[in-house]
Amino acid sequence: MYNVREISPQIYWIGGNDRRLEQFENLFPLTNGVSYNSWLILDEKTAIIDTVDDAVTDQYLENIEHLMQGRELDYLIINHMEPDHCGNIENLVRRYPDVKVVGNKKSFQLFDQFYNMDITENQMLVGEGDEISLGNHNLKIITAPMVHWPEVMMNYETTKGILFAADAFGTFGALTGNLFDDEVDYKNLYLDESRRYYANIVGKFGAQVQSVFRKISSFKINMICSLHGPIFRSDLNLILDLYDKWSKYEPEKEGVVIFYGSMYGNTANTADALANKLGQRGVKDIRVYDVSKTHPSYIISDVWKYSHLVAAAPTYNMGLYYPMDNLLHEMAALGVRNRKVAIIGNHSWASAAQKIMTERFSSMKNMEIIGENFDIKSRLKDEEEQKLDDLADVIAASVLEKTEE
Ligand code: FEO
Fold first, then answer.
1. Could you give the CA distance from residue 107 to residue 113 in angstroms, rounded to a whole number?
2. In ligand 1, which atom is closest to the CA atom of 228?
3. Could you list the pLDDT tens digit for every one of the 405 residues in the chain?
4. Which atom from ligand 1 is nearest to the alpha carbon of 170?
5. What residue's CA is closest to ligand 1, atom 1?
6. 167 lines ligand 1 (CB under 6 A)
7. What gap in Å lies between CA 268 and CA 265, rounded to an integer?
8. Cα within 13 Å of Cα(23), Cβ side
9. What is the H or E stretch that residue 123 is in?
10. Concatenated DSSP letters for 63-122?
């Protein structure tokens, strides 16, 4: 059966939900699926904005057939040529052979790389500021390169103030029948997943997100339609303010994320003892993760949220314990910066982890190493407690100094 909803007069959500997918991009675990949003405008002219992933093709085509009632499709606007959104271009061109497929040079290059269909005759090239009039509605093209791929565009519908934002402002998590932010408990149901989506998918491209903010700063925006997750129509500032912070790599909150690697529980013991000491010094909302247990995307999400990090891991094969090595590699690739970091190594006969972690964090922008790095020899002993107290003093003072400002 069709499954659509009018989101504004003549504009419909026609997307689908995938709750079976285990990992987004075959990388990021999904606990409650993901939505692929697509939009149909039934005006004097008809337009579809982006398509959906192959996984929901049947539902998608049924939705379109139900609403189109035999009309022709005039425009298929492709804001993002990544397969989770362009998986049905071929199907739509086959059904509507005269449709104008709207994109830029890079969009069509990518289409040709991913697919075998020749759509040269259908192509309509657009660029910054171009407008497509549909009758009552008018779509202005905003280029948004690298949010999250180089061809990305957004559309600003000028009569209603609707921003079709491609991946931006999206989230993991399927839709629940409540399509709008004011119909769901967004903060409880989606916010953590939205941050995890941002940090891991878009996080590297903060400067490009800021560039889009500059472009849209003069627009009156009443609704934001992302390609994943709910539509914002009530509390737009919630997500706009967070995106501004996230893309400037500013922490949302003063607080500590401790992540450790531990083979036999000894580094874990030190991490837990440090967390306990921080708690006793008044630091609230501490997060502690075992890097061998928790998927890096969750830890990176909290790295984006909090101001202070503690990394603790043993030496392994004269290098850094692999899961920590991988996590720090991902953090560097995503451009993590502007955090205060404390480092604890562990070794039994030859020390490398502490030095490597120090080098890794030092290679990231504006990462300040605080406290005295120290290196455990196999297991921290009670008589060495002072070292941990000294580190806890420094971290707690640094966190609380800002909290109390
Ligand atoms: Fe939802 Fe960049 O694709």
1. 10
2. 1
3. 999 999 999 999 999 999 999 999 999 999 999 999 999 999 999 999 999 999 999 999 999 999 999 999 999 999 999 999 999 999 999 999 999 999 999 999 999 999 999 999 999 999 999 999 999 999 999 999 999 899 999 999 999 999 999 999 999 999 999 999 999 999 999 999 999 999 999 999 999 999 999 999 999 999 999 999 999 999 999 999 999 999 999 999 999 999 999 999 999 999 999 999 999 999 999 999 999 999 999 999 999 999 999 999 999 999 999 999 999 999 999 999 999 999 999 999 999 999 999 999 999 999 999 998 889 999 999 999 999 999 999 999 999 997 766
4. 1
5. 167
6. yes
7. 5
8. 7
9. strand 123-125
10. HHHHHHTTPPP-EEE-S--SHHHHTTHHHHHHHSTTPEEEE-HHHHHHHHHH-----GGG
Q: How far is the CA of 344 from the centre of ligand 1 (A)?
A: 37
The ligand 1 atom nearest the CA atom of 152: 2
In the block, residue with structure tokens 């790095």: 373
Ligand 1 binding pocket includes 339 (Cβ within 6 Å): no
